[in-house]
Design brief:
This protein is of the alpha+beta class. The chain folds into 3 domains: about 5-90, DNA Primase, Chain A (Alpha-Beta Complex), CATH 3.90.580.10; about 100-170, no CATH class; about 175-280, Dna Topoisomerase Vi A Subunit, Chain: A, domain 2 (3-Layer(aba) Sandwich). It has 11 helices and 15 strands. The strands form 3 sheets. The protein has a 5-stranded antiparallel β-sheet with strand order 1-2-3-4-5, with helices on one face. The protein has a 5-stranded antiparallel β-sheet with strand order 6-7-8-9-10. Strand 8 and strand 9 (about 160) form a beta hairpin. The protein is elongated and about 70 Å long. It starts with a helix and ends in a 10-residue tail after the last helix. Residues about 85-100 have low confidence and may be disordered.
Length: about 290
């Protein structure tokens, strides 16, 4: 095996052969707990389309050759010799990858009972009864391995999937909406922010609201007609570039849109606020 052949080996498959599975997948980006150092938050990224890696903690990246020599602490020649002995790596050049959700296969679903998933829900400061009401426990396969996750169903039958180490979705990907006969709508980017809102407000007597969970900001403009059917639209979007752009766009559309992100300013989203501030302040958000 020469250097050119080695560089054609799929990094994701190579990492899997070493026992490393992605903590989360977003399109062609695979995020891992770094194989090169100890860490608790996945910051080792593989761009599968380009077949390159980057470790944000080390500030280093490159091809499989760069990774292999550092991981095995060996020379390029020694690495090629090591890889030549493993016939499973002799594969054709990397092909463009299908979207993440097409790789996820749902095996089964049931009520939430897994202790590890319930502990994760508790860590996110979401009430268990709220999670049980809106979520399911999903068993799914990815890269021929089986996992369990919290599943949040969308309007097309697909699921947003979360556990402590994985963030992904199954096909088809779509919005999730809840119609309660209200003329007002509350909009959230991700389902944990929606669950956080329900947890905060569960003991308060508030006027009914319809709810829209985007599951991706890519659905924001596509949901414009649905949003504009309401008299008032309350936006609980993230404090990041994508969320701020969506909020700014909506405010330019109509005065019926209200930016509610000021309620958790200084935090990335409502759930992060609740985990930090909400744990010590048992108060609800401004009544809508």
């Amino acid at each position: 095996m020469n250097i050119g052949q080695a560089k054609q080996i799929d990094l994701v498959e190579y990492l899997a052969s070493l026992g490393y599975n992605p903590a989360k997948i977003k399109n062609e980006e695979y995020w891992y707990l770094s194989p090169l150092r100890e860490e608790r938050t996945a910051s080792f990224k593989v761009d599968r389309r380009q077949n390159i890696w980057y470790d944000h903690g080390l500030g280093k990246g490159g091809t499989l050759i760069d990774f292999g020599t550092q991981y095995h602490d060996c020379s390029v020649r020694e690495l090629l010799k090591r890889m030549h002995g493993n016939l499973s790596f002799h594969q054709p050049p990397v092909q463009p990858l299908a979207r993440e959700e097409s790789l996820v296969k749902i095996i089964s679903e049931r009520n939430l009972v897994s202790l590890s998933l319930l502990r994760y829900i508790k860590q996110r400061r979401v009430a268990e009864e709220v999670a049980r009401k809106y979520c399911r426990e999903i068993v799914f396969s990815l890269h021929q391995k089986t996992y369990s996750a919290i599943g949040f169903k969308n309007n097309e039958g697909g699921f947003e999937l979360r556990n402590q180490w994985f963030k992904g979705s199954s096909s088809p990907k779509a919005i999730t909406s809840f119609e309660n006969g209200s003329k007002e709508l509350s909009v959230f980017e991700g389902f944990f922010n929606f669950l956080s809102y329900q947890t905060i407000q569960q003991n308060q007597s508030l006027p009914p609201s319809n709810f829209l969970v985007l599951n991706s900001t890519s659905f924001f403009e596509k949901s414009k007609l649905l949003m504009e059917q309401h008299d008032a639209v309350h936006l609980f979007l993230d404090w990041d570039k994508a969320g701020e752009n969506c909020t700014a766009k909506a405010l330019s559309w109509s005065k019926k849109f209200w930016d509610e992100s000021h309620l958790y300013k200084g935090y990335n989203d409502l759930n992060e606020w609740m985990q930090q501030i909400g744990k010590s302040q048992k108060k609800g958000l401004r009544q809508l």
